[in-house]
């Protein structure tokens, strides 16, 4: 499994926290791809620029797609630009891959809010691996989930501990990221999510002002 796939599982699991915002999650997924590409030395960072490395053997088709989408000409692409370009509706791409691979099952009731059609994760080694990674508070996954707004207790803890109150969920401790390149990517994800929210707020204010103008006529 890859970090983006684990992040999507965290987002879809009902015990992981708040419902995922598709835009914020897509940005976090794009950041997770860069982190995994860094991990296999398919890329390196020059400041905040993503520099493609020597060809790597990537088993995951979406990571291969991400690698092929890299900018190979100087001055290369900044992490921020990558997040906005690659992250466009990326959550839907990963969700479609899960469904194609048999990782999802359709339900009669709504379990996720990513798209039309009620789907849920099936029990699988991939899901259990993501659960283990989340429950262990693995720093990178926690940081990405936090950036995407997926606050709350790790999988299953709320269900197992009846003393926990649903209106006061625990948030994992702030992760300790020691790799400078990974920290750069995570900072860019946080900034992009904040920018996305700021744009939404501006649009909401503008729409409200427009409505108020029309009410005056």
UniProtKB/TrEMBL annotation:
Where's it found, cell-wise? Golgi apparatus membrane
UniProt cross-references to InterPro entries, sorted A to Z: GPP34-like, GPP34-like_sf
Domain of life, per UniProt, equals Bacteria
Q: Per the annotation, which location comes first and is thus the protein's main one? A: Golgi
Asked whether the UniProt record includes Nucleotide-binding among its keywords, one would answer no
Q: How does it sit in the membrane?
A: Peripheral membrane protein
> Where does the record place the region Disordered?
155-177
Q: Keywords in UniProt for this one?
A: Golgi apparatus, Lipid-binding, Membrane
Q: What is this protein called?
A: GPP34 family phosphoprotein
Species assigned in the record: Streptomyces phaeochromogenes
